[in-house]
Amino acid sequence: MIVPPVSASPVLVLLGPTASGKTAAVARIARALPIELVSVDSALVFRDMDIGTAKPTAEERALCPHHLIDIVSPQEAYSAARFAADARTLIATIQGRGNIPLLAGGTMLYIKALRDGLSDLPEADADLRADIDRRAAAQGWPALHVELAARDPDAAARLKPTDAQRIQRALEIVTLTGRPLAESYARREIDAPLPPMTVLSLEPSDRAWLHRRIEARFDAMLAQGLVDEVRRLRKKYVLDAGMPSMRCVGYRQVWHHLEGDIDAAAMRDTGIYATRQLAKRQITWLRSMPIDQRIDCCRADAADAVLETFTRVSG
């Protein structure tokens, strides 16, 4: 790892729910400051998943170096623990080059893992639990116990195949963290202190404003070919509905549509609803986190307000 100089650049963090304008703010910052972006997004890590993840365009990526985008196959998993390790390395490397690390995205668990470690278990994920319950209703809890045994043999050995509540929580933790339960419960080693961070968040004063943006963006994704993108993914990779990539909002609903479970109208409606629920969970995360400045993303000048603060702390 490159050790940054004593006068290292600050570490900037921009968080916000989906469709809050983070990408536009990053573009504004990149035109004014020597940043390198470290993506804080659990969906952008997957290759060939471009439309449904609202991945930055080639023009946006040309404004500054982008990291932790397109780094794993949709067949793989990427955990919060892995993000924390990758982000620490990138922060030091970027500072060593004399540039400013900007961590931006909406996967708050990643930032918690980076700042606080993962000794605390993740909070319940309503969508993930609903997905586990749906699969249990279709396959039975013993089948999910078999799935748990493949992913965390030690945890499965301690549970009865009919212990629905504990199987559900075990699968949830393993899925969210990418680690076995024993490791999640264990006290982890203390990492070296992180450099100081300035954390800003984009949060809506008007939830209806955000909902309108979510609906418009999801319709735009469908018009851009989201359904065909999922078809291509299913042909190129060996995927199933339980994989982290296909549980991403939008992809999950299109998968069910391609399986014949729902029609196109229901796919659109459930996709928009799921995205709104994701935004709600992200906002709840933000309200529980220490944030240096909260900026109303409904403001027309929200990107300028972010840049003003980051410029001031960057000296």
Q: Looking at the chains present, what oligomeric state does this protein adopt?
A: single chain
Beta-strand content estimate: 5-15%
Helical content stands at 40-55%
Which sequence of SSEs, written as H and E, runs from N to C? Answer: EHEHEHEHHHHHHEHHHHEH
Number of strands: 6
Regions with pLDDT < 50 over 5+ consecutive residues? 1-6
Distance between the termini: 25 Å
Largest sheet: 6 strands, parallel
Assign an overall shape.
globular
Overall average pLDDT: 92
Structural class: alpha/beta
For the largest beta sheet, what order do the strands appear in spatially? Answer: 3-2-4-1-5-6
Q: Provide the gyration radius in Å.
A: 20 Å
Q: Count of helical segments? A: 14
Question: Layout of SSEs?
Answer:
Elements: E1 11-15, H1 22-30, E2 35-40, H2 58-61, E3 66-67, H3 80-96, E4 100-105, H4 108-116, H5 126-139, H6 141-151, H7 153-157, H8 164-177, H9 181-185, E5 197-203, H10 207-224, H11 226-236, H12 251-258, H13 264-287, E6 293-296, H14 302-313
Parallel strand pairs: 1-4, 1-5, 2-3, 2-4, 5-6
Helix pairs in contact: 1-14, 3-4, 5-6, 5-8, 6-8, 10-13, 11-12, 12-13
Describe this structure in words.
With 315 residues, the chain is of the alpha/beta class. It has 14 helices and six strands. The chain has helices spanning 22-30, 58-61, 80-96, 108-116, 126-139, 141-151, 153-157, 164-177, 181-185, 207-224, 226-236, 251-258, 264-287, 302-313, and strands at 11-15, 35-40, 66-67, 100-105, 197-203, 293-296. The protein has a six-stranded parallel β-sheet with strand order 3-2-4-1-5-6, sandwiched between helices. Strand 2 (35-40), helix 2 and strand 3 form a beta-alpha-beta unit. Residues 1-6 have low confidence and may be disordered.
